[in-house]
Structures are given as structure tokens and as C-alpha cells.
Amino acid sequence: MSDFKHFEYMAKHRYEQVVYFYDKTTGLKGITCIHNTTLGPALGGTRLWNYASEEEAVIDCLRLARGMTYKAAAAGLNLGGGKTVLIGDPDQMKSEGYFRALGRYVQSLNGRYITAEDVNTSTKDMDFVAMETDHVVGLEGKSGNPSPMTALGAFHGIRAALQYKFGDEDFTKYSFAVQGAGQTGYYLIKKLVEAKAKKIYFSEINPKHIDRMKKEHPDVEFITPDKFFAANVDVIAPCALGGVLNDQTIPQIKAKVIAGTANNVLLEEDIHGNMIKDKGILYAPDFVINAGGLINVYHELKEYNIGRATRDIEKIYDRLLEIFKIADREGIHTQQAAKVFAKKRIETINNVQDNYIVR
Ligand code: NAD
């Protein structure tokens, strides 16, 4: 018997709503969590995963929804945090009916929650969702692939980190190692090449991605994954997996800056955030530096305009500088400072909206 206390957990982290749904025709089994809608409708993708248990699914959904609240708030968006998880085998479940059934449950929340693609769901699946609801973004032919925009945001984030750590943004003076040359890593390396970075290394495990990089950028040097953390460079950019900053890897790091696209890179936020701080390394908080894709998709809610989206993504630079200053001023690690920054914005806007006005 599970002893997970749903309402205790919701109260502790101030969740608003958890919805369970089941479609008898298609077998759709899902959970939508809405963490906080102070700033606007909750936005978060739909993840399809073969969870080992229903409890694992609900905990994942709750955790991811809360993460979206901070990510949207720190990105300056008028969005709250939410998430949907679907329980099932991605190879077995997917069909038009399955995603249209999902669309109807999303619609039933009447705009309090907006969905998008995530792990094991695609823009094609979202086209079916869109047949039943307007509250879906990331559709084919609209804001497009988020990865180049995520990489663009990370590039501006790296600029901010260089500025804060070294006092300039002259890429020709600095060397980089990028972990993962998949979607976001590939585009980030392109930006670093364009900026004429002094030296770029990359590590990968997928032979196709290694070959692509070697063909397109022969000067970008491959290093085996075990050499990544100890690379003798100024900046390391994790663009692959979560949990990679931990007790084993942090002592190896020689770089002075960690800034990449990957999510949840600190294995234990406080322990490893502080370990990095104590080594004098500047860490760009993941949910702030990798928000480019979210900012891009947010623009789909209005009339999508790539110029406006790009300009908003550039603001990651100023936001990170502000967060680095908060961390130094308060003597806290930068991930914690990013949360302080996000919570402050939610609180301020909440207070501003206290005044009654007629619209
Ligand atoms: P991806 O799967 O396209 O790329 C990841 C790459 O890392 C793959 O090529 C994979 O082979 C490689 N890899 C895996 N293990 C490795 C290892 N041990 N050493 C070196 N390389 C390894 O994924 P992506 O879309 O680029 O996302 C990367 C990270 O960025 C994820 O954490 C994701 O959650 C995060 N992120 C992505 C986006 C986006 O727009 N795609 C937005 C925000 C955050």
C-alpha cells in the first residue's frame, strides 16, 4: 500500500489542482497537475511514459508541474506551471482517438491548463489534441522546433556567465566542452562556432551525431564521454542528461563556468549547488538558461512572430546577470537564487493584481 500523502504534499508545495482521467474507449490513463496560476494559465507538455506505478506517475507529474511554475516565472512569461503525464507504453497506446480523448480532457479545464508535446509525444500527436481543444501549443507550422530557440537562449546565457565571471564576452578567448550533440547541443555548437570560440570540444554516444559534427564542423574536437567533466576548458555545457552534476563529477571539473541546455542537471539541488559554489564555479541555473523553447512556444498564444520571440529569448542574458547578483548578495547557490527570483516575481504580480479594476 502506498503511503504517499497527496493532500499533504499539495498543501506543502501549494498546488492548486490535480485531475485524473480515464477514457474507456482508448484506454487513455492520465493525470494533469496544475501547480500555480498566479501569472496566467498553467502550461506544460504531455509526457507519455510506462510508469512502474501510478504513484510514480503522480509524483513525476507534481514535480514537473512545479518546475514549470518557476521556469515560466523566471522567464518573465504570464504563465503558470502545469504538466500532464499519461501512463502507458508509447509503442502501444498512440492513436488519433487516444490524443483526441486527451484533447477533450484538456478542454474540460477551460483554459486553466495549456498542453504541448513532451517526452514520447510529438507535434503530430498534438494536431489530434488540437481537434478537440484550443489550449495546445507547439503545433506544426506555428512556432516550430523549439531546440534551436533553446540553444539560442543558452548561448545568451553563456554570454551572461562569461560577462559575470570574466568581465567580457569575447568568445575568441574562451574554450568550451559540450556534452551531447543531439538537438540542442548541435545548435549550441553552431552558435559557438559562429561566435569564433577559441576551442570547442564535444562528447557524444550516438555515432550518427558524432559523424554529423565531424562532417559539418571538423574543427570541433570529439572527446570521449568519460573525459567531459575533466576537460581543460573555461566552460562546460551539459546538453544531454539530468543528474550529471554530482559527487563523482563535480570534483573533476576544471572549468569556471557551467552553462548548458539540459534539465535537472544538479543531482541534489542544495548539496550539489553548494558544492559547485564552494569550488568558485559559476553555474547558470538550468530552468533559466534553457527557457528559450518555452519562451518561443509562449508566443504562439498570441500571433507568432519570430522577431518578437527572439528578442524575448535574448532577455535570458539580463535575467541571469540579476540572478548571479542575488546569489552573491545573499550568499546562496545560483539555483536557489533563481527560485528566489521566480518566487519574487509571482509574489509581486500577485500583489499588483490585488487592486480591483474594471476591464
Ligand atoms: P537529444 O536527445 O536530442 O540530445 C541529447 C544528446 O545527448 C543525444 O545525442 C545523446 O546521444 C547524447 N548523450 C546521451 N548520453 C550522453 C553522454 N553520457 N555523453 C555524451 N552525450 C550523451 O535531446 P535535446 O532535445 O538536445 O535535450 C537535451 C537536454 O536539454 C535534455 O535534458 C532536455 O530535457 C533539455 N531541454 C531541451 C529542450 C529542447 O528544446 N529540446 C528545451 C529545454 C531543455
Task: Write a structural description.
By secondary structure, this protein is α/β, with parallel strands linked by helices. It folds into two domains: 6-69 and 79-129, Leucine Dehydrogenase, chain A, domain 1 (Rossmann fold), CATH 3.40.50.10860; 147-344, NAD(P)-binding Rossmann-like Domain (Rossmann fold, 3-Layer(aba) Sandwich). It is built from 14 helices and twelve strands. The strands form two sheets. Strands 1, 2, 3, 4, 5 and 6 form a six-stranded mixed sheet that branches. Strands 9-8-7-10-11-12 form a six-stranded parallel sheet, sandwiched between helices. Helix 2 (54-74) crosses helix 14 (334-352), helix 4 packs across helix 5 and helix 11 (292-298) runs antiparallel to helix 12 (306-314). The longest helix is centred in the first third of the chain and has 21 residues, at 54-74. The relative contact order is 0.12. The mean pLDDT is 96. The structure holds nicotinamide-adenine-dinucleotide. Residues 146-147, 150, 179-185, 203-206, 209, 225, 239-242, 261-263, 290, 293 line the site of nicotinamide-adenine-dinucleotide (NAD). Nicotinamide-adenine-dinucleotide binds at residues 146-147, 150, 179-185, 203-206, 209, 225, 239-242, 261-263, 290, 293.
CATH topology of the largest domain: Rossmann fold
Oligomerization status of the protein chains: single chain
CATH superfamily annotation of the largest domain: NAD(P)-binding Rossmann-like Domain
The beta-strand count equals 12
H/E topology pattern: HEEEEHEHHEHHEHEHEEEHEHHHHH
Q: What is the total domain count? A: 2
Summarize model confidence as the mean pLDDT.
96
Q: What form results from the Cα inertia axes?
A: globular
Q: Structural class, from helix and strand content?
A: alpha/beta
Contiguous low-pLDDT stretches (5 residues minimum) are: none
